[in-house]
Amino acid sequence: MNLKHLITSLFSYLFYVSTTATTTTTVTAQELQVGDEICTSGYVMDYYCINNGNLVDRPSVRTLQGPDQHSVHCLVDVSFCRESEFEILLPLSDDELRTTTNNGDLYKRGWRVDDEGRQELVNLARSIGEFPSCSTCTGEGSLKRGFHAGVVGHVLNVNGSQGSPILISVNRTQATQPDDDFCATFGMEMIDPPVLPPSPVSGNLNLDENLVLNYEANFESEILSIELILEGQAWLAIGLTDNGSMTGGVAVVGLPDTSVAEKYSLDGYSLDGVQPVAQGLQTLIDATVEQTEEQTILRYSRNFEDEGDLPVDIENGIIRFIYAYGTSNTFGYHSFSNKGSVDVDVGTSIEEIPTHSPEVDTMAPTASSPVILGQLIPFSGTLDLDDNLVLNYEGDIETEILSMELILEGQAWLGIGLKDDGKMTGGVAVIGLPDASVAEKYSLDGYSLDGVQPVAQELQSLIDATVEQTEEQTILRYKRNFNDEGDLSVDAESGIIRFIYAYGESNTLAYHTFSNKGSAEVNVILGEAKVDEVIDTESKWKAHGLLMGLAWGVFVPFAIACSLLRHVLPLPPGIWYKLHMGSNSLASVMTVCGIGIAVSAINDEKGDGADHFSLRTHHKIGGIILVLTVLQVMNGFLRPHAPGPHAAVAKQDNVEVVEVVEGTEDSDKGNSEGVEEKTKVRSIWEVMHRLMGVTTLVMAWCNCSSGINLYEGRYPMDMNLTLVFWIIVGLIAGGTLLLKFVEKFKQQQLQ
Questions:
Q1: Those residues with Cβ within 8 angstroms of residue 220's Cβ, 6 or more apart along the chain or in another chain
Q2: Rounded to whole angstroms, how far apart are CA atoms 39 and 174?
Q3: Residue 142 resides in a domain
Q4: Model-level pTM greater than 0.85?
Q5: CA-CA 20 to 30 A from 259: which of 79, 175, 218, 433?
Q6: Is the pLDDT of residue 119 over 80?
Q7: How far is CA 747 from the centre of its chain?
């Protein structure tokens, strides 16, 4: 516990003592009554993530296994998390861990706070959360994940049913750590909430304007009773699901014409995949379907544990339903608006999944079937493109209209379009610019901003295209014809729709980061959808940049310095040449390896066979540098014989002996006596060698600088790498030129 935390706890305790006239009485779990004061401490979690089963911001982490991984951003920035109920999660005891059957959970739902208490906890989290990872935080704190708080409050309701936390107020709260003894600060003991005896829970829910669900869960008899009322005449169905998806489950279907209500297996999206279960599994109780001139009513009861169907999760207290109904009594495909899913918390109250917020459901299409006579049947679905972006889509075959809704958790421009190869260039995308409230089609003719321009006005054929923005979300909506002039058509023959998408860091249209883009594929025949894997190539681009930066920012300038300063540096004869050749050789190897790594990274991102050396100017210059490097290496091996000693140079008392090392360029000290003259071929070679070396070096310096800009565009950094690179280059090059100038100056002074 740090000093600030200790001082805060001390003042809280003194305040509590000064405002409390009587000694606090510790209330045990069994004695809890409305109005009792309790104290607790644990991880604060939103009900959306609890109900979801996994953390929204980290889908691989189960909510009740890793609440310490839950980000403050998810808790207080994301609207559908922040606006759901808040609960205090408590660690399971050793006995509970030994007996629990809840998928290895380490925590349990302890207490639920009221709305005022939720706002208190939101304010506290924002005061200690790190900005800008938490965009609504005050900037005074540093907490990124695992908001743990202590709460002193009063019991507001003890009439919940099994699986439901007791409702409490928040009178005092402060940030804590799991090992803090928060309650002792107030002279209280922390207690576990009691396990309340089960009691029947019932309720009703308007699923849409035409459909009402009435339900009752009797925990004593373990019977779930359902009544589904449709305003109209049509078949209707409802069932339990664990993921909100249709396939793989069981539903009760009521067919009014035959007055039969029975269980059906949902093995696919086609009618052939929806068939009655075996007679031995038809275990419904009092199942009926009735129809009047105005209504169709499906009623049935079932056991909590029903063979061949999902059990009612009384431990968690959450029942998730899927439902659908047709447009007539004949069993057939339902429309996009005549279906859905809903969660019922039989512990407290009905919790409906927000239709405007992302849902964790990666296999989202909910109405598809095989192609019939070259035509698609109606299709629709939801797809999580990443942690912040959700796509809702619907295809209406009668009107041949594709409707799109792209929801971003955050404020930024966003775009989406159809592309058959999943690549950006050469296509058309719809881009929404919130500041201008404009959503229109753009041609994607290149990766630069100049290549992303609105299409001609006569090709702006979108229907009801809008872009809206709130404090938490940016939403792009539009409709388009299946066959849209100037854009890809919806492929009715194959049933495959491939999307590309991207979004920025702000409302200003600019380059997006590497992680803010991707592609996805929807198969409306099989009812499947997938987001294409984005291979993380950051490590390869780091290696590419490091190798190229060292090769051309350090080793090649050092090699040139060794050559230019061979008469200045106090080195043994011939050593400069070995350093020159060794540094250049190492730089050549690093260049080949660095470009090879870049080729591999582009293959990872764009697939084998991608064009590597014509994407941008940087890539084109990189190809030229590779060619010049190989030629320079070959040129080095083919260099003409260097002039060397052809006769003995006698030592005389007053004559300085100049040692010339065979096979080096030391001979250019002049036509000293006893040293053969430089050939014309050798002179031409030296000019070409130096000219090619300097040209390649200048090109490499420019490319290193542009490469750093490309890297920083993908992966924003705090350090100015461009400045660091040019400082290193400047020190080596400037130092070399300065020493060379001093040498020339001294020679002139001696003449």
A1: 198, 200
A2: 12
A3: yes
A4: no
A5: 218
A6: yes
A7: 64
